[in-house]
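Retry 2 of 3 after timeout on previous attempt. Resubmitting structure tokens to design endpoint.
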């Protein structure tokens, strides 16, 4: 029998199996919490509080509606419902929920924007296609336009549909 009446061996304890469940866990920065510095995580992160600094995640980053990030987000996938000011680097898919407010630079492979989401800044998506109309000399899409030369609609003209590029 163990020190606290636990007759289980170390091999069956939750701590012994921690490495196999890292991908299933979600790290939480709770509402009312201020975190300053760098967060590095091998599993998902959900921020309902405020982060000032860098967030590096080898999984999905979720910024809740009440969450705020001032700094840099580097992740495989990101879903934003709150506020972000800074740079966002996403390997796969970035989703801006209808309540999202983003001010800064976005680099992502795919971008999904729900009606109501607000974004101010620069966006680079996917692999640049050189020589295509609607692109500047740098090979990136010009600010305020969608690749292919179509202009983005004003808020009053928004169709109400979710757009995935």
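Retry 2 succeeded. Sequence:
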């Amino acid at each position: 029998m163990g020190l606290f009446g636990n007759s289980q061996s170390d091999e069956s304890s939750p701590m012994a199996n921690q490495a196999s469940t890292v991908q299933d866990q979600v790290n939480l920065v709770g509402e009312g919490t201020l975190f300053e510095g760098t967060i590095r995580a091998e599993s998902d992160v959900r921020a309902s509080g405020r982060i000032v600094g860098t967030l590096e995640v080898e999984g999905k980053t979720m910024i809740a509606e009440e969450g705020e990030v001032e700094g840099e987000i580097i992740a495989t996938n990101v879903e934003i419902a709150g506020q972000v000011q800074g740079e966002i680097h996403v390997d796969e898919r970035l989703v801006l929920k209808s309540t999202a407010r983003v001010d800064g630079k976005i680099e992502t492979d795919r971008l999904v924007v729900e009606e109501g989401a607000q974004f101010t800044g620069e966006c680079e998506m996917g692999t640049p296609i050189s020589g295509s109309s609607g692109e500047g000399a740098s090979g990136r899409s010009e600010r305020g336009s969608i690749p292919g030369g179509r202009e983005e609609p004003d808020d009053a003209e928004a169709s109400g549909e979710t757009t995935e590029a």
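Attempt log closed. Residues 131-160 have pLDDT under 50 and may be disordered.
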